[in-house]
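Design review, sub-item: ligand-bound model
Attendees: FS, YL, KQ
YL presented the inputs for the S-adenosylmethionine complex:
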Amino acid sequence: MLTFPLADNCQQVVGVDISSEQIALAEAHASKDNIRYHLADVTKLLQDPAFPTIAPQGGFDKINLYFSFQYFDTQTKGKAALKAMLHFLKEDGILLLGDVPEQKYFNTFYPTLKSKIKYHLKRLIQQDDMGKFWNEKTLKQIAHSLGAQIERIEQPAHLPYADYRCDYLIRKAPI
Ligand SMILES: C[S@@+](CC[C@H](N)C(=O)[O-])C[C@H]1O[C@@H](n2cnc3c(N)ncnc32)[C@H](O)[C@@H]1O
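KQ shared the predicted structure:
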């Protein structure tokens, strides 16, 4: 959904996913000459011997992790993912973390005690599809600990998930 339209405005696009099914679907339905798909766990990208040969020398101009950061559902995983993406980002590049569920809207999203218990139980048995609701302060601490600048962006109200998700722009260089 994202790599295909982006490829019209980019020299080269690399799509990374941990799911071999998603990679196969993308390869079958969203292929273009300047798109390459790569099967990998983003949190382990720094240990992946193939990725440096795929990533452009000097890093990507832009990295987009959209509607996915909730699956990095511990601080350790979130930090590992950010560290890997920053490593492969150009010095003056921009990383977009899009559609991150916000901890402060957890009660809006799960208004009843029953819905909250259901969420936590599903997470306990690893059957949860919502992932982690990130706290802005925690995310900022992680980014700063990696030497990055981070800016929270409120979504325009007409977007479907604007009532409980937001975006972050992350840069290596000072804003
Ligand atoms: C909700 S989809 C969003 C896909 C796309 N960004 C979009 O907005 O349409 C989340 C994707 O993240 C992938 N994913 C989850 N954990 C991952 C990880 N550790 N490394 C790479 N991909 C991961 C899933 O397989 C899934 O395809």
